[in-house]
Amino acid sequence: MAKSTTLYVCQSCGASFSKWAGKCEACGSWNSLVEETAAAVPKGLSGKRGKGVDFVGLDAPIPEAIRRATGIAEFDRVTGGGLVRGSALLVGGDPGIGKSTLLLQVVAALGNVKPALSCAYISGEEAVEQVQLRARRLGLSNAGAQLAAATSLRDIIASLDRSDPPDVVVIDSIQTMYLDSLDSAPGTVAQVRSCAAELIRIAKSRGFVLLLVGHVTKEGQIAGPRVLEHMVDTVLYFEGERGHQFRILRSVKNRFGPANEIGVFEMTDGGLHEVPNPSALFLAERRGNVSGATVFAGMEGTRPVLMEVQALVSPSPMSTPRRAVVGWDSNRLAMVLAVLETRCDLALAGNEVYLNIAGGLKINEPAADCAVAMALVSALSNRPVPEDVIVFGEIGLSGEIRMVAQAEQRLREAGKLGFRRALVPQSPQLRDKGGTGKAARPTAAIEGLQAVEIGHLQDLVDWLYNESRSLSLESPAISSAAAGAGRRS
After folding, report:
1. Does the annotation place 99 within a ligand binding site?
2. Of 154, 219, 285, 337, whose CB neighbour count within 10 A is largest?
3. Dihedral (C-alpha) 28, 94, 245, 298: value to the nearest 10 degrees?
4. Which InterPro entries match (predicted)?
């Protein structure tokens, strides 16, 4: 009989140790080691021979991928056009953000497409009556989905491992499932890894779509072993702030479509509603002629999104001024502040700085550097940025403005929403390798939109100073920066 050993497994990263410790040496988390019993594993394969695997060439004919659209355009955009047969998707998000509501609406939409798909919704956290009440509140009582409340993986596999399984299966959530062959409690690393592996195996063999709901830690990462995200085909994060009605469905991994794509929803009393034009919605409450606010043209996956960047700069009575950031990288803000101080002679060290991305959206791309710098300069000098101006560009440590990807799509989206001017990075005049003398293609012109190219951060400061000279009082900080512009080559 195989001898069992006791291991202490970290619930944050999955690392195992022979002795308990207060701190995990692998990831540094405290009080995360839990005792688990694991059966001894043989060191090598036995004498039994395997059946072998079949190999095919790269040019062999492949069957057409069966992808079914759900009818929810924002969800289909994030998944790459719909759900692929035999795929496994993992949806994570904060408690109460709307994961169960989203998947219940997806299941109901799949039951209304033609031909309709058979769907099974298995809840490990709620009773069947609770799911029915939510469906009734959302007006989805007529959907043809089958509901069940179960946590035993053995019972669930017995219901799904048949010749005619459902087309779509939702497991809410993977942390509540347990395998009775393991001694650990539900939600531990061993249980989550083993249950997910069994569900994915049966989904691949029977050809149904598997949707897994995953809990997240306080850092916002999906709870359980990191290998869980490697096992599935698609990882979706459902983001949003409790104080905002907007919800962002973001794809961080997708084997059947583009990654980093987003879908925007609005949470209402009747459930989640799609937002086909998020730029207009994020800018709906924008007020003009306010210092410290500018519009950034960003890219989320393949979609251009316009959002407002707000900054507030105020004198600080403390020796160490506060820096507060919502929706952006705090390290990136520290870099932009240092470049403004060093390259543009702006006095920001003794001021408190607050930065916010309006609407609850999180920006991860460096193209927002120029928009943040413009908002900071506007807040410091009390000079409003004109309402019809958008800004984007990456800032280098020497103060240069670097090119960003997909500039034409950003400008095109801004032109659709009525913006007339754009501060964009200067096109580099480089010759081709053949020596024909052709310059690099400049930023494409958009009808009705004037592109103002800037090559240095000082040009951004000078442009705002000259633009608002007749509307604002003279600012010592801006005046000194403008005076120093002649020192640049």
Report:
1. yes
2. 337
3. 50
4. AAA+_ATPase, DNA_repair_RadA, P-loop_NTPase, RecA_ATP-bd, Ribosomal_Su5_D2-typ_SF, Ribsml_uS5_D2-typ_fold_subgr, Rubredoxin_2
Is 42 known as a binding-site position? no
**DSSP string over 37-87:** EEE---SS--SPPP-------TTS--PPP-EE--S-HHHHHHHTSSEETT-
Q: pLDDT per residue over 457-466, tens digit each? A: 999 999 998 8
Q: Is 350 annotated as a binding residue?
A: no
Q: Which residue has the higher pLDDT, 68 or 433?
A: 68
Query: Does 327 carry a binding-site annotation?
Result: no
Pairing of strands 67-68, 83-84: antiparallel
For residue 132, name the pLDDT band (cuts at 50, 70, 90). very high
Question: Distance between CA atoms of 420 and 411, rounded to whole angstroms?
Answer: 10
97 is in an annotated binding site: yes
Does the pLDDT of residue 468 top 80, yes or no?
A: no
Q: Is 152 annotated as a binding residue?
A: no
Among the CATH numbers 2.120.10.30, 3.40.50.300, 3.40.630.10, 3.30.230.10, which is that of 286-429+442-487? Answer: 3.30.230.10
CATH number given to 67-276: 3.40.50.300
- Contact call for residues 235 and 92 (beta carbons, < 8 A): yes
| Stated pTM of the model | 0.78
160 pLDDT above the threshold of 50: yes
In sign, the C-alpha dihedral spanning 105, 109, 112, 116 is negative
